[in-house]
Amino acid sequence: MKHFKTLSSFLQYMELPLPEHPMFSIYVAQEESFLPCPRESSPPITNDCYSISLKKIVKGDLNYGRTSYDFTNGALIFIAPRQVLQWDSSVIFEQKGFSINFHEDFLKGTELATQIKKYNFFSYSVNESLHLSPKEEKQIESIVHNIKIEYQNNQDEFSKEIIISQLSTLLKYANRFYERQFLNRKELSNDLLEKFNFQLAMYFESGKLSENGIPTIEQIANKLNVSQRYLSDTLKKETGKTTTEHLQLNLIDKAKDILLQPHKTIAEVAYELGFEYPHYFSRLFKKKEGISPSQYIEKYKMN
């Protein structure tokens, strides 16, 4: 897999103009020019840069991480350093959009260097991209226009600060629009929760808990063909609970059935549920139910 350490080497590979700043570049496609991806195809590549792009794909699939997506609407795609990107010659881009690329060191010593790590959408997959309404697209394009003006001005001591301020504004708007996207996709969110619970039920019934231990959120997300961050954000917005909390609730529900089986010790139940240490299970059970596993058994017997 090819890795690019500098912004210049990455843009050169992408067949885009070299940056006017060694660590920052903005490219806005005009009607007569290519959208920012003139290279026809690419094997998997990584780099040390952040990318923010507005792209409209007319035809073809973009592979990003483990997933691919075929879409024709404009979408904002966010890529973080060292994430894998790949595409082939079947991808055709509409001649409209922009691409902002900057090396991770461009943010060093700024507040945005910390803030940007809090935006989960940099870990989303292409099929989880931000789809903009026409009004939202205009707002984003207005910010990009301001960044481009500053980028093309003669560089001075204020240039970097102004560009980073505009970048911060762009990301805050993106975060707001993602919130809207989650709210407008409640049906999809409910479907995702059902699939999440189904995958857990299948895993429990297969006997893999005692053999392989408790599944990770990443394993479940892979089964659902979504990124771990997107799964967590979607369930949190819809239910108020994180993916870990949903996993724990399913484990406790399963535990209640096993605890009431005759001649089962607490330790045996813990191992059957995939816990390496029984006291971890007892601690979680008490945290969620307010009573210990043994107290739960006694309470059931009394009823």
UniProtKB/TrEMBL annotation:
Coiled coil: none annotated. This is AraC family transcriptional regulator. Transmembrane segments: none annotated. The lineage of its organism: Bacteria, Pseudomonadati, Bacteroidota, Flavobacteriia, Flavobacteriales. One of its GO terms (molecular function) is sequence-specific DNA binding. Residues 199-299 form the HTH araC/xylS-type domain. InterPro entries: Homeodomain-like_sf (IPR009057), HTH_AraC (IPR018060), Tscrpt_reg_AraC-type_HTH (IPR020449). Keywords: DNA-binding, Transcription, Transcription regulation. SMART domains: HTH_ARAC (SM00342).
